[in-house]
# Entry
Amino acid sequence: MVTKPIQFNHGPDTVLAILAGNKSQARWVIRPQPENEYGIQRLDSGIFWQTSPKYGPVKLRYQVGDILYVKETCYIWGRWLVGGTTKTGKSKMRFHPVGEYATHGTPPDKIISAAKCYSKITPGVCAMWKRPSIFMPRWAARIFLEVTDVRVQRIQDISEGDAKAEGFFSSKHILEARPGHSFGFRDSFAFGWDRINAKRGYPWANNPWVAAYTFKQVDKPKEEKA
# Structure
């Protein structure tokens, strides 16, 4: 079985929501966007078909039954080594894991001490180095998800229940933005959506087409286990 990576835009809060059982849905913008409200239709076979601006099936990241491993920020035991030079002649540094040892969340005190000792890249020194989620290898994954449903919809079609399943609440930044106002799950989701997607050209107000995925947390696949 081939597992696919999934990386969320809301950082560690999303990971915590999944672990707590508060997040079971995620939405991504479809590119290119249809030119009109009839641009995507679902065929009897279950395939989503796009008619504008191109003609053909919608390319989705995931399908029902896919197993995903969550990429998250972690600490990995390894070292930095020189790996080539830049166009200006400066040395390139590449991270090399030593073995397969990683930890997530807040590291133990001894790991924090090592990180403080080597806060700058030091060639050849083995330590627990903080690695951004984009660079997390598959073997370091601790969270695995199975896709159970795939839908294509306009973002404003999200229901209150779906917004809750996205892991949103009346969060602190919303209450600070409009003190005294009451926000439901859908309001919270719309605010969070714009924080990430408005600057990308897909604001809530434009009601873009999205792929909506529902998933559940599962055990690590057998072939992935050590």
